[in-house]
Amino acid sequence: MKTILTSALILLIGITSLNAQTIKNKQHDSSKNNYVVLTKKVAQLKPIFLAAEALANEDGNNYGDFQVIICGKTVEDLANKELMHDFLHQAKKQHISIVACGFSLKKFKVSKEDLSEQIEVVDNGILYDFQLQKKGYHNIAL
Questions:
Q1: Residue 15: is it exposed, middle or buried by C-beta count within 10 angstroms (0-12/13-18/19+)?
Q2: 41 plus 106 within the same structural domain
Q3: Which InterPro entries has this protein been placed in (predicted)?
Q4: Residues 39, 14: one domain?
């Protein structure tokens, strides 16, 4: 009986701590509107950049960070320097971060060295997306 009560108390403390941390993260980032888009198609970068531009104009000084996470087979396109040139130029101009899913890179045998230095690689793009959402980022998956 003591073990059950002790376990329940530890679980309750853990949940309370997690909720407090989540609230703290949202308060920390609430001064700016931050955005993240998870996509499986490089071709969607053009409309994503147009949306980012419109949001930047709409938000004004409240516009914060904008990140695009690319997962799935399309990570192969990230190694195509000719295809990516204009996209990377536009992303840099608009201060948009392009992020590649490391899990997808491994699955489709794309080397990090084949990517532009401008492309950040995270271990797991889906997990990274959830982590940004917990920090208060507005999110959409395409």
A1: exposed
A2: yes
A3: DsrEFH-like
A4: no
